[in-house]
Amino acid sequence: MVISRFLGCALAAAMLVSCSDPEPIIEYRYSAYEGDAYPDRLPEITIPEGGMGLVSDSLSDTISLVSLATGERFGVHPVGRDPVTIDGPHHVAVDAEGGAVYVALSYPDVAGAIGPHAVHGGSVVAGYVQKLALDDLRILGQVRVEANPGDIVISEDGRRVVVSHFDLKRVLDNPGNVEAARSSLAVIDPEEVLLSGSPEPEFIPVCMAAHGIALSRPDGARAYVACYGEDVLAIVDLTDPSAEVKRVPVGSTSSPSPHSNNYGPYAAVMSPDGKTIAVSSTESRDVRFFDVASETFDDSRKILTIGAPYFPAWTPDGSAIYVPTQVPDTIVRIGVTPDDDGVVTRNIADECMRPHLAQLDEEHGLFLVCEGDRITTPGRVLRLDPETLETLSDTEVGLYPDGLVRVAPEAP
């Protein structure tokens, strides 16, 4: 230290500058920080009077909040794991009693789009399920699933979260091997979705390009899965993962090969009484009705649609069904019982590009999720009169919305 100071002073002298004593060392002491190291600054969500809808905006990486009473979007929250790239929040499920929202992250195919769901179905990136807090959508946990998550649902009792995988790439990569081409259901215990170290879900091989799921009530012991790539409705015993999966053909016309489809079942929605499942097939353009008790399709009730049908909605008494179709873009109310056999159809292309999903709220109307152009034009959520199908309200949401769940207002 002395030598260093001597050399320093010699150098200073050579440069004709003075060499004085070093500056005194000043020590600053601070009190311990009493706040949170990473404070939660997410705005709290106040459920409006009449309840709210949660809409997954798959190419905006957001969830839009829509008032059920007015149909207006009153909030938007970012979701996902990566703040830079697209995580693709695809469909959403809610456990209001447990205060949690579950969203499937289905990373888009960067090489191109195949199938009826455009950017979904061709990715090689493993998906995730995130558990979010209902009061502000902060992350409570996450668990890894397989590539191309399709639908996500939660059992009525809140004890099972089930995810399908609309994995068209798996089908194309295994042209001679049906078993290898089949994707799985991921069965998740909500209590085990943690911020880190979440155990792997139970994966049950089901069928090729599985998508829409309907669960038995109230415990979700059985899953009914629309299998786009295999033209069947799969019946899965979720209480026994080793049990044989039943695959019921949706129609009598067999496909020319195990890797081609004539029907393309895409959505499965259970009736309010749990006795019937409406299955929408986008290739054959029809809605068929599956009897849960007999495990057969009732061909006498088949509904043919002009456009490709997507996720329908039942009336509370099960007497009619609302079917959104694409190309042409329409919404149709169809009676399905002897007491209600009327049909109301509306071409809605001027207001709703690519209707994807219908949800009926008894008090406030029929909600229709419209995808938009899936590229730059934001999607929309329309609120319609359930009887006339006339528009009551219209609100813009994010890019490529594809899911909506309703949350009742908090009890006073």
CATH topology of the domain at 59-310: Methylamine Dehydrogenase, Chain H
Structural class, please? mainly beta
Tell me the β content. Answer: 35-45%
Mean pLDDT: 90
Q: What Rg do the Cα atoms give?
A: 27 Å
Number of strands: 30
* Helix content estimate: under 10%
| Number of continuous helical runs | 3
Report the span from N to C terminus: 74 Å
- Are there runs of 5+ residues with pLDDT below 50, and where? 1-17, 112-118
Coarse shape: globular
Largest sheet properties: 5 strands, antiparallel
CATH superfamily of the domain at 59-310: YVTN repeat-like/Quinoprotein amine dehydrogenase
What CATH architecture of the domain at 59-310 would you give? 7 Propeller
- Assign the CATH class of the domain at 59-310: Mainly Beta
Provide a descriptive summary of the structure in words.
InterPro entries: Haem_d1_sf, Host-pathogen_enzymatic-act, WD40/YVTN_repeat-like_dom_sf. It comes from Sorangium cellulosum (strain So ce56). This is YncE family protein. By secondary structure, this protein is mainly beta. It has a domain at 59-310: YVTN repeat-like/Quinoprotein amine dehydrogenase (Methylamine Dehydrogenase, Chain H, 7 Propeller). It is 6% helix and 41% strand. It has helices at 2-14, 168-173, 178-181, and strands at residues 52-57, 62-67, 73-78, 89-95, 100-105, 126-133, 139-147, 149-154, 161-165, 183-188, 202-207, 210-215, 222-227, 232-237, 246-249, 265-270, 276-281, 286-291, 296-297, 303-304, 308-309, 313-314, 320-326, 330-335, 343-347, 355-361, 365-370, 380-384, 391-396, 401-407. The strands form seven sheets. Strands 16, 17, 18, 19 and 20 form a five-stranded antiparallel sheet that branches. Strands 21, 22, 23, 24 and 25 form a five-stranded antiparallel sheet that branches. β28 (380-384) and β29 (391-396) form a beta hairpin. The protein is globular, with a radius of gyration of 27 Å. The N and C termini lie far apart (74 Å).
